[in-house]
Design a protein that fits this description.
The structure is a single chain. The chain has helices spanning about 40-60, 90, 100-110, 130-135, 150-155, 160-170, 175-180, 190-195, 205-220, 230-235, 240-245, 255-264; strands spanning about 5, 15-20, 25-30, 70-75, 80-85, 115-120, 125, 140, 150, 200. The protein is of the alpha/beta class and about 260 residues long. It has a single domain, classed as 2-enoyl-CoA Hydratase, Chain A, domain 1 (Alpha-Beta Complex), CATH 3.90.226. Strands 1-2-3-4-6-8-10 form a 7-stranded mixed β-sheet. This is ClpP/crotonase.
C-alpha cells in the first residue's frame, strides 16, 4: 500500500500519518495541532485506526504466526517541543465513558500489539500521554529540554486505574512513584534514564531521537517473528490490562468533597 497514509482516513485535516521507511519498521507520526492532545477523535479515528493499519500490513506478509516488525511512535517531526501534552481534559471530563471507551481502548490496543513499540519522545510528555509512553516497550528521548510529568495532582484530575497500574509496574520504588504522582515531579530526560524509564538518550533534537529509535527498532524487530510478543506483554502487564478492562466512573474531586461534607 502507498505510504505515507494520513489519519483520519478521508479527512481534509491530517492528525497523524504512518510511514513505512524499511521493510520491518513502521513510524506513526503524531501531528495533531501544536501538542497532540489525546481527544476523542485523535484516539478513536486516528491512533487506533493507524495501529490497525500497521498490524494489517504486517500480517499481510507474515507466516502463520509472525514476522519481523517494530513500530515507532514519534511527535511532530517538524518541531521538538511536544511528544504529547496529554488529554483534552476539559472535553474528556464531560464524558463519563471517556476513559473506559477511549483512553483504555488505546491502552488495551498498545498492550496487545504484536510487535515491539518504541516511544520516540522528541519533546514534553505530560499526564495521560506519559501513561501512553509507559505502555510502550521502549523509550528513546531527546537529551535536550523536555520533561515527562504526571501533573494530574496540579490539575485536580485523578488517575484512571490503568494509569496507576502502569506507574506501579514501571517505576522502581515507592519514593519515585510518590514523586511522580503526588508531587507531580517534572522528570528530566537524564533522571528518567538513570532510573531505567528511558532506554536511550539522543542528542540532535528530533532527528537524533528518530535515528536512535530506528537503531533500537532494527535491533528488536526480529522479536515479533514468533508471534508471541503481544501475548507475552499482555501476560507480563496483566495488572495493567485488568485495570484497563474496568468499566467504572472515576470519582472527581468535587464528588469526593460533596460526599465528605455529607458524611461529616
Amino acid at each position: 500500500m502507498p505510504y505515507p497514509i494520513s489519519f483520519p482516513i478521508g479527512s481534509p485535516v491530517s492528525l497523524a500519518s504512518v510511514h513505512h521507511p524499511t521493510p520491518t519498521i513502521w513510524e506513526l507520526e503524531m501531528h495533531h495541532g501544536l501538542d497532540n492532545r489525546l481527544s476523542h477523535e485523535f484516539i478513536d479515528k486516528t491512533l487506533l485506526k493507524a495501529l490497525d493499519l500497521v498490524e494489517k500490513d504486517w500480517r499481510s506478509s507474515t507466516t502463520e504466526v509472525g514476522a519481523p516488525g517494530a513500530l515507532i511512535i514519534i511527535g511532530k517531526k517538524s518541531q521538538q517541543k511536544f511528544w504529547s501534552n496529554g488529554l483534552d481534559y476539559e472535553t474528556a471530563q464531560k464524558d463519563p465513558g471517556f476513559f473506559s471507551n477511549y483512553y483504555d481502548a488505546l491502552v488495551r490496543r498498545l498492550l496487545g500489539f504484536p510487535m515491539p513499540v518504541i516511544a520516540a519522545i522528541n519533546g514534553h510528555c505530560f499526564a495521560a500521554a506519559f501513561g501512553v509512553a509507559l505502555m510502550c516497550d521502549y523509550r528513546v528521548m531527546t537529551s535536550g529540554r523536555a520533561w515527562c510529568c504526571m501533573n494530574e495532582a496540579d490539575l485536580g484530575a485523578p488517575f484512571p486505574p490503568s494509569g496507576a497500574a502502569i506507574l506501579n509496574y514501571r517505576f522502581p520504588n515507592a519514593a519515585v512513584i510518590r514523586a511522580a504522582t503526588l508531587d507531580a515531579h517534572r522528570f528530566t530526560p537524564q533522571e528518567l534514564h538513570a532510573i531505567g524509564i528511558v532506554d536511550v538518550l539522543a542528542d540532535g533534537g528530533t532527528d537524533g531521537v528518530l535515528r536512535e529509535a530506528h537503531k533500537l527498532a532494527e535491533a528488536k524487530a526480529a522479536r515479533a517473528k514468533t508471534g508471541v510478543y503481544g501475548l507475552m506483554r499482555t501476560n507480563l502487564l496483566k495488572v495493567v490490562v485488568d485495570a484497563a478492562n474496568m468499566d467504572e466512573r472515576r470519582i472527581l474531586p468535587a464528588d469526593a468533597a460533596a460526599l465528605a461534607r455529607a458524611r461529616l
